[in-house]
Structure prediction request, 324 residues.
Amino acid sequence: MRYPVYRMRRLRKNQTIRRMVRETSLTPSDLILPLFVTYGKDVKKPIGSMPGHFQFSVDRIVDEAEEVSALHIPAVILFGIPEHKDNIGSSAFDPNGPVQQAIKAIKDRVPELVVITDVCMCEYTSHGHCGIIKDNDVDNDSTLELLAKEALSHVRAGADMVAPSDMMDGRVSAIRNVLDENGFEYVPIMSYAAKFASAFYGPFREAAESTPQFGDRRGYQMDPANTDEAVREVLLDIEEGADIVMVKPALPYLDIVRRVKDEYGYPVAAYNVSGEYSMIKAAVEKGWLDEERAMMEVLLSIKRAGADMILTYFAKDAARILGG
Ligand code: PBG
Prediction:
């Protein structure tokens, strides 16, 4: 049927009709808020490159967690900024590290909030790479042991879920094994399965103080040109026991989100990363974009592409608008 018998505009006539035919919806339950936890007391230090975000000390992060939960956001993901960094990132599995303490404090105060932890070495190594350096390169197999130790220490502290983000080969099974051996068979793994070597992580590296001191991450993160490889990465992680698979970043990779969702039907998370947040904030500061509309359109597009959950620095703002 064609014009003039059929007119697409009939179903766009008013707000109520548009609401009836809307195919995708967004709710606070779709959102996960990343939070940065640091050492010290009474710290709430603004992150210059990410307006509205802070490094929190443990005593201050619990108030934030309470606010997040009150907005009906189901989960946070924690990133740690340790007091000491060394070559092998040993504070990553310090039972008294900022992340481990924050997990306990949050689960104490807001038990219903799901606490996910980012499992990676880059915030803990003096060189800023995601693992142990051998011959000027990140050594895969020795890094796995550290990642497994880090994940276990988070789960021992009470983390509900762990999210390895390093892109080493075999890390999902290394973590699954160590969790199972220690009686944590029911703790899920959200794997950063297809993580691309992206320019959009820039602001995060200031936030987490994790910029590589030499070279870059292209030897372990994915080439932005590749789709089939992303699908293979996801398949491997599923075979190793990942419960949720993540695509990261989100906006420049919505095609990958869709393909992964269609191919496997697994729960898919998409990470709307720091650069995707900061570029909207910067444009809004200049008066070039309407913040609320730009933010909601971006989040909706990620959902429409097939994501079941979205890690986003906009989580609180969006949840407020969605009536969280
Ligand atoms: C690595 C990690 C990174 C991000 C999440 N986990 C940075 C990187 O790979 O360099 C980026 C998140 C963002 O940009 O918002 N631990």
